[in-house]
Amino acid sequence: MIIKGDIAYTPSPQELVTIEDGYVVVGDDGRVMGTYSSLPAQYTPATTGTLTAPTLVDCTGKLVIPAFNDLHTHAPQYPMLGNGFDCELLPWLERYTFPAERHFEDPAFADHWYRRFVNRMWRVGTLRFSAFASMHTEATRRLMELCQESGLRPVVGKVNMDRNAPEYLTESADDSLAGTEELIRWARTHTPNVGYVVTPRFVPSTTSELMRGLGELADRYDLPVQSHLDENPGEVAWVRDLHPDIPTYTDVYDRHGLLRDGRTIMAHCIHLTDHERDLLRDRHVFVAHCAQSNMNLSSGIMPARRWLDAGLTVTIASDVAAGQDPAMNRHIVQSIEASKIRTLEAKRGGNDGQASQAGQISQAAEPPLTLPEAFHMATKAGGRFFGTVGSFEPGYDFDALVVDEGENPLDLPVADRLERFVYEGDDRWIERRYVAGREVPEPFAQDTGRAE
Ligand code: GUN
Ligand code: FE
């Protein structure tokens, strides 16, 4: 297959490759063979009657970009987008989130809202993601089935909780582990394109026994792990009280075998000590930066530039429903904005409490994230969690969006058009979606939830 269009992708955070009126050649295995400004002779699609002639998909005048990868979202929070943001994390969980997740004990409710959730992910062009489900085993199975049916390729995990949650969401450690293992084994034969991700909610809601059991399951079945870390100062203090014998929050996960090398996602990571930062780097943890959520729940502003400079893998994530918007282009914008606030505060001498002298830029001022950096964080950096995904370099799975901007009245170059889509565009601009070389049609069009 050959796609013709205006191509943009980020092989590295510093490099935005653009090819106006170019070509992406995709092999039968769904992987990119190359990107070109003029089509090499061997790929000429004109040979009529030849069975092996590649198909030309003509997207002239439209952007062709890597699809988005969202490493942190909560599927059962989809019905409560935008609620409870006068709270910080812990009251928000208690007053809004837990009661919302309770509804997923009803299979009909779960089926209805998970269809809407999966369809929305398709719409906004997030074709791979790592999702928390609720603690309900049957509803989680349904979410995985719907994802498999959709053609998207996410990973999903039943959330594990055996302490400090309302009774209606609390299982014993044994039951939680048994339900988890049942899903892991079931998924291996029933949902080949939807992986299982081991999902302790966060340290306050999982006992040592449960965390240790989950670490063992992850090892035994060689699975990835996802959780929350260092999101809110009250939460961090609570973890210190719960585990006074372990030096830091990050060490609690590590001591229970939950920082699997290169296979672990930790959401937020705002309030890290230097030691925690180094441990996350050494374990090659994917940091899911949830800038919108961090604002909504007044959690803090993660120092993205500092973590990148320290060698951490930082990706951009929605954290639905603490982030109110499922669309990753919004989160790219919000990450850049959050980063600019840090820079401005540092210039004022605000971040580190140093007073700056009039007109002098403080040493602490870190340059804000750039558009190519943030786009890379939402595509290639997160894509690595799923394999060779998130770029158009040779060998990458062709996961792509074709974006029709309508008009280009200012005759903008491709880089500016990409920026305009990221800042101003929405799902109505996305005309086609490809996963691993195959076009994916809208999975549950009747389940959008509102007139669109
Ligand atoms: N920490 C524990 N659970 C959650 C959750 O559902 N959302 C967020 N943002 N943080 C959490
Ligand atoms: Fe979260």
Structure write-up:
This protein is of the alpha/beta class. The chain folds into 2 domains: 2-66 and 390-442, Urease, subunit C, domain 1 (Roll); 68-383, TIM Barrel. The chain has helices spanning 89-102, 107-124, 137-150, 173-190, 208-220, 233-242, 249-255, 274-282, 291-296, 304-309, 328-347, 371-378, 380-383, 414-424; strands spanning 2-12, 15-26, 32-36, 56-66, 68-74, 126-132, 155-157, 159-160, 195-196, 199-200, 225-229, 264-268, 286-289, 313-316, 400-403, 430-435, 438-439. It has a 7-stranded mixed beta sheet with strand order 3-2-1-4-15-16-17. Strands 5-6-7-9 form a 4-stranded parallel beta sheet. It has a 4-stranded parallel beta sheet with strand order 11-12-13-14. Strand 1 and strand 2 form a beta hairpin. The chain is globular. Guanine is lined by residues 74, 89, 93, 97, 201-202, 228, 231, 293, 319, 322. Keywords: Hydrolase, Metal-binding, Zinc.
